[in-house]
Design a protein that fits this description.
The protein is of the alpha+beta class. It folds into five domains: 96 residues, Alpha-Beta Complex (DNA Primase, Chain A), CATH 3.90.580; 122 residues, DNA primase, catalytic core, N-terminal domain (DNA primase DNAg catalytic core, N-terminal domain, Alpha-Beta Complex); 127 residues, 3-Layer(aba) Sandwich (Dna Topoisomerase Vi A Subunit, Chain: A, domain 2), CATH 3.40.1360.10; 48 residues, no CATH class; 147 residues, no CATH class. It is 51% helix and 11% strand. It has 27 helices and 17 strands. Strand 7 and strand 8 form a beta hairpin.
Length: 599
């Protein structure tokens, strides 16, 4: 496959994989004509609404609107990026990726790391169940972990030795590879020794169930309590979640995912019958973690330790990531002070934890409750301090209706007039942090695939109608491209569809964004059959007219500002400006005469 073009590479992989066979590894499908149908893997349902067309290489769910090809299925199912899905599917069909196409560098190195991690996992698992390592099993029993749970999570034990794993890997000629994987450390004399010693070992698996790293819990007080493998081309702790393969079926059935901090928190909840739990790998929550969880479940529950540091970490982490998720779908599970999920469920049981789960607050509500906790409503200074603390919280609420609901609630709780509070927390008020980034690098990309109705303005409506007409009659694509370029639309989702039309319907330009287009409602909107009596020429004239009106308004405003700010300069330039103004007015009048009656 050396020298193959990226598009050819993806098409080659796609052509070699039978989509029904791939999806059949996750979902029970039955044949229905040329299609296959089954229960959707992305949401809970009792009646099959998930359709797979292997001939076209396309799947669609009539319930949750999930759609895509082999790549988008693996991305959605595993919660991984496109390069990771590309690499996983290439491995499945025996295609070696070019080095720069692989997600984590040299694919040969990645294969070596996978191999040595599998060997290490086998070694650790074998050690855990040897008679001489009864102390390790006793520790798990004291922590309430059964043998069944230990085997389900593939737990192991690293012996109390400096070179047990080293000798094992040397026997297979893989000591150097063990060092590359971070399992063995190197002394100054070049010899190796084990990273994990006298520890319970937790294999950290990728979405396909392959070990990419390990976590270890010390069984004595002489070492740090927890350590993880160092980062490698396979393992990035800011992107990796523990327990995803074991939780995937529970997540699909429930539509929920719970994020906890520790490995034992994850195991304890699973053992209690809560089978949709994952954990971070010794790091704070990141945007990559949030993105992966959003891909896996509709409702996300965060259950960290109940101490002050745990709460502070949750608020700080989620506040930083607030623009990456729906604050109503991410909920905070509160535990009694001093508890963590492991200690709470072992003491109180699953029923009590479910009760806490059902009382979980959406993140925004949790922020408000935390800010109001301990506030004396009879104290002016307390109330003013609470209002000040809540400014960035309210600033993050984009919906006017949701914002008004919170303001009414706060006014009642703080016993202040609603109008005064609304004025104090109004967006744009001096000193009010509106939560928006001014750096262009941090632009809000969440609007790019937003349904059209949420982006107001006649130009947006005209753009929608133009694109709908082009889908029906692509003969006008070249004319639109010649006049407006390859990105003629304000909504990036529309530009994706337009570029697809430019390539004469080439699937490749469309597939990579298919899931986003479907999730944003863009496909449903563009493919609806109502009001299709117009031609693309009608809609292009309408869009041209609207844009020229906007330009005319801008020119008028610029002339007015120029008169006010610099009359002398205006007098020097007025001829040029007046000619431009008259030219635009004439063009607008011509367009008015030719515009379609409805668009």
């Amino acid at each position: 496959m050396a020298g193959i073009e990226p598009k050819q590479l993806k098409e080659e992989i796609r052509s070699r994989i039978n989509l029904a066979d791939l999806i059949g590894n996750y979902v029970r499908l039955r044949k229905s004509g040329r299609r296959y149908i089954g229960l959707c893997p992305f949401h809970a349902e009792d009646t099959p609404s998930f359709s797979v067309n292997p001939e076209e290489g396309f799947y669609y769910c009539f319930g949750c609107k999930a759609a895509g090809d082999v790549f988008s299925f693996v991305m959605q199912m595993e919660g991984i990026s496109f390069p990771e899905a590309l690499e996983r599917l290439a491995t499945r069909v025996g295609i070696a990726l070019p080095q720069k196409a692989a997600a984590g560098g040299d694919p040969r190195l990645r294969n070596i790391l996978y191999e040595v991690n599998r060997a290490a996992e086998a070694f650790f698992t074998h050690q855990l169940f040897l008679p001489q390592n009864q102390a390790a099993r006793d520790y798990l029993l004291r922590r309430g972990i059964s043998e069944e749970t230990a085997r389900h999570y593939r737990l192991g034990y690293a012996p109390n030795s400096w070179d047990a794993l080293t000798r094992y890997l040397l026997g297979y000629g893989k000591a150097a590879e063990g060092h590359l994987a971070g399992l063995l450390l190197k002394r100054e004399d070049g010899s190796f020794f084990d990273l994990f010693r006298h520890r319970i070992v937790f294999p950290i698996l990728d979405g396909g169930g392959h070990p990419v790293a390990f976590g270890g819990r010390a069984l004595d007080e002489l070492q740090p309590k927890y350590i993880n493998s160092p980062e490698t081309p396979l393992f990035n702790k800011s992107r990796q979640l523990f327990g995803v393969p074991q939780a995937r079926e529970g997540i699909r059935r429930s539509g929920r995912i719970i994020l906890v901090e520790g490995y034992f928190d994850c195991l304890a909840l699973h053992q209690a019958g809560i089978h949709y739990v994952t954990a971070t790998c010794g790091t704070a929550m990141t945007a990559a973690h949030m993105r992966q969880m959003r891909n896996l479940a509709a409702d996300i529950y965060i259950c960290y330790d109940a101490d002050a540091a745990g709460k502070k970490g949750v608020v700080a982490g989620l506040s930083r990531l607030a623009e990456t998720f729906d604050t109503q779908s991410v909920k905070i599970v509160e535990l009694p002070p001093g508890d963590d999920p492991d200690s709470y469920i072992r003491r109180e049981g699953a029923a009590a934890f479910y009760g806490r789960l059902e009382k979980a607050l959406p993140f925004r509500d949790f922020q408000l409750e935390e800010a109001l906790r301990g506030v004396d409503v009879h104290s002016v200074s307390d109330r003013l301090a609470a209002i000040e603390a809540l400014k960035p919280v309210i600033a993050g609420v984009k919906s006017p209706v949701e914002r008004d609901i919170y303001l009414q609630r706060l006014a009642a709780r703080l016993q202040v007039p609603y109008t005064s509070l609304a004025e104090e927390l109004a967006p744009g008020k001096r000193g009010f942090a509106d939560g928006r980034h001014t750096n262009s690098k941090n632009r809000d990309t969440s609007r790019e695939f937003m349904p059209q109705e949420q982006l107001a303005g006649p130009a947006r409506i005209a753009e929608r109608e133009l694109l709908r007409c082009l889908i029906r009659d692509p003969s006008g694509v070249a004319a639109v491209y010649a006049e407006l370029g390859e990105a003629p639309f304000s909504l990036e989702a529309y530009n994706v569809v337009f570029r697809w039309l430019m390539t004469e319907g080439n699937k490749e330009a469309f597939y990579e964004h298919l899931a986003e287009l479907s999730a944003g409602g863009v496909l449903e909107e563009l493919l609806s059959k109502d009001d299709w009596q117009l031609t693309w020429q009608d809609c292009l004239r309408k869009l041209r007219l609207i844009k020229r009106r906007e330009e005319l308004t801008e020119l008028e405003n610029a002339l007015a500002a120029l008169v006010e700010s610099d009359p002398v300069y205006f007098m020097q330039q007025w001829c040029y400006s007046l000619l431009a103004y008259r030219r635009w007015r004439k063009m607008v009048k011509q367009d008015l005469m030719n515009q379609p009656q409805a668009c």
